[in-house]
Write a structure and sequence with these properties.
The protein has 106 residues and is mostly helical. It has helices at 2-10, 18-33, 38-74, 76-87. It contains 4 helices and no strands. The chain starts with a helix and ends in a 19-residue tail after the last helix. The model has no long low-confidence stretch (mean pLDDT 87).
């Protein structure tokens, strides 16, 4: 017990103040020990920003796809173009040639 008192007396006067000690313990607790410490908060903020970017990307993709679907439902020329590109469909009086690029390992 005497050692603790001697150590306590060797501390500078501001560090012997019980309010400052309480405040320092509080800061250490908040910044390093607590469940939502500062490191966790930084990680969560970074993840939040990434999710916001993904949300904006997907909103733009949904808008683009909605436009395509609307055009496919309401425009016969767009339906024909889509069928020709995706399903290789053709009219009766035309020939269809499929051009494939040569792979490097062939």
């Amino acid at each position: 017990m005497k050692r603790i008192k001697d150590l306590y007396q060797k501390l500078p006067a501001p560090l012997r103040n019980k309010y400052i000690i309480t405040f320092i313990v509080f800061l250490v607790w908040i910044f390093f020990i607590d469940t939502f410490d500062i490191i966790t908060q930084i990680k969560m903020n970074k993840e939040f920003k990434q999710l916001k970017e993904q949300q904006e990307f997907y909103k733009s993709e949904v808008k683009k796809d909605s436009t395509i679907i609307y055009n496919l439902n309401n425009n016969p020329e767009e339906q024909e173009r889509f069928a020709r590109e995706r399903f290789l469909m053709k009219k009766d009086n035309e020939d269809l040639f499929i051009v494939r690029e040569k792979k490097e390992n062939e």
